[in-house]
Amino acid sequence: MIRTHRAGELRRENAGESVVLTGWVSRRRDHGGVIFVDLRDSAGIAQVVFREGAPAEQAHGLRSEWCVKVTGEVVERPEGNANPDLATGEIEVVATGVEVLSESDTPPFPIHGSDDIDSGVDESTRWKYRYLDLRRAGPAHALKVRAKAVSVIRRVMERHDFLDIETPYLTRSTPEGARDFLVPVRLQPGHWYALPQSPQLFKQLLMVAGLERYYQIARCFRDEDFRADRTPEFTQLDIEMSFLDEEDIYALTEELFVELWRETLGVELTTPFPRLTYWDSMRRYGSDKPDLRIDGLELVDLTEHMQGTEFRVFQADYVGAIVVPGGADYSRKDLDGWQEWARSRGGKGIAWLLVPADGGELRGSITKLEADRLGSLPAATGAKPGDAILFAAGPRRTTLEMLGALRNAVARQRNLVREGEWRFVWVVDAPMFEEVSSDNPAVADQGARWTAVHHPFTAPTEEWAENFHDDPENALARAYDVVGNGMELGGGSIRIHRREMQQRVFDVIGLTRDEAESKFGFLLEAFSYGPPPHGGIAFGLDRLAATLAGTDAIREVMAFPKASSGGDPLTGAPTPVTEQQRKEAGIDVRPDGLS
Ligand code: ASP
User: Fold this and answer.
1) Distance between CA 40 and CA 21 in Å, rounded?
2) Residue 419 in contact with residue 550, Cβ under 8 Å?
3) Angle at CA 140, nearest 5°, toward 137 and 141?
4) In angstroms, what CA-CA distances link 32 with 35, 37, 49, 50, 66?
5) Which of 149, 234, 286, 554 could form a disulfide bond with 400, CB atoms 3.0-4.6 angstroms apart?
6) Paired sense of beta strands 67-76 and 91-102, if any
């Protein structure tokens, strides 16, 4: 064995032992005759002392990030010299020899003393030199938390007899509704694999196969526009089970989360998580991912109150408001700030009304509203003297969403978010369909009006089972999302296992029999062999791990993340291919042989 101990694991109990350690020179301090080296390995840092003689002479030449092997003896530090900030702070290692295993160039950013993830080094430099970035304690910690989370996940899944099964990466289009990444096929020029957007169809096939309980920590690929919280490849904890209902999924998820939070953060979560229907969540919080750490600040629906008004601003499909406690102290500048905020989000603006603390006259941008409507607004919204009322009006859904975003922004501005708490909620009974938007390329070209909100294998709720096709706008699905502190951490659904019902969904989303056959024929065929009732859920593992590691950024829990431009600063991917590669891969060949 090359070493006897890990440097970061040495404790007072090791005093008196002879040790051989390996690691990196984190820092070297030359105090005349005595040289101190902070030696770092994956377990932490130990202080090595080189006193006079040959070892000290050797230590003179050591430089930061050189990889070394040190021989020495562990001694207790003299009284008063212990370092309480270091796990090994009660001891030091008196070196008898040092061997240089490899030298290092000066790193592009300092590694010693920059343990925090946010060290000010710019991201693309960090990803380009990720192997140096991960020598820092903070970034390495994030990956360790992820590994711990995966280990807890496997334990919980195995306890419940779930089988870990791999599904193909080279496959055909899956139904999650984003663009596919395509892979040319050399042996069949003009034919392409798609990388899976999720293992959805395969996990359903495994249920037809009678395996009953499947899980996988699966890589998924979606060719979407780049955003701060999105990467083209990401990982899901993917789960499917047979003979279940929603309660099975909720119980399993809650058990999993309890253990994840306990073992990575030492936090005891309260279960069961509360449940909200999608529309209650939209109505009350203007979001399907409500942040329940914010007390109150619920949306007030004033549509009825404004019925028949002459005041143009409030002649709208939906009128709503939030009450800002103590908001009567808003300055004109604050209120203009909210206007700008609303416009930058594509909204028309925010109307406002201040309810003076001294009981004086209402002030605001809507004082031209009919007097009785205006006067009764504090009562209608529950605003008290000293509060402000902020209004938005317009089409129902977008206005609800605007007020939901306003709720979050106001809560942040006025410190109304209970930081440090964990608040989870199930959002259930989501709409089955939504109107096709032209920016969804996967559906826009089908010329259909409706698309499945979750995916087209999601079952309707019991009351919509027979008639969802007559009223797609209002039909509800047996779909559920688990939301924590305002983040969607996972989502899934109970699936359709009856062919006739599946056909009606395809009809609504404008998928002809032939199209359905060519896209999902293999699944539909499997469904003709006695499919069991089944359902499942998938969790964004990157988001989950980032949350447990205490960061907002999913890239921190990826070993080699891509930059927000989608490129990989480390390897330089993606790159152009050569003419030869194009030819071999058959990139320019059409399936009909024409070019
Ligand atoms: N396949 C779905 C997704 O990736 C999750 C599920 O329905 O289980 O969002």
Assistant:
1) 10
2) no
3) 80
4) 7, 14, 12, 11, 21
5) 286
6) antiparallel
Quick one: tokens of 450? 């409706």
pTM of the model: 0.93
* Atom of ligand 1 lying closest to residue 239 CA: 8
- Tokens standing for 225? 């526009």
Task: List the one residue out of 594, 545, 573 whose CA is nearest residue 147.
Answer: 545
Q: How far does Cα 163 stand from its chain's mean position?
A: 25
User: Residue 208, Cβ neighbours under 10 Å: how many?
Assistant: 19
141 — pLDDT class (breaks 50, 70, 90): very high
Predicted pLDDT at 536: 98
Q: Which is more confidently placed, 13 or 589?
A: 13
Phi/psi class of residue 57: alpha, beta or left (left: φ > 0; alpha: ψ in -120 to 50)? alpha
Q: Which domains does the chain have, with CATH numbers?
A: 7-102 (2.40.50.140), 294-417 (3.30.1360.30), 430-477+498-531 (no CATH)
> How many angstroms is it from 492 CA to the middle of ligand 1?
5
Nearest to 429 by CA among 524, 593, 532, 288: 288
Structure tokens at 577: 């291919």
592 pLDDT band, cuts 50/70/90, is confident
Q: Ligand 1 test: best mutation among 176, 200, 205, 544, most atoms within 8 Å of CB?
A: 200
Query: Can the peptide bond before residue 574 be classed as cis, meaning omega within 30 degrees of 0?
Result: yes
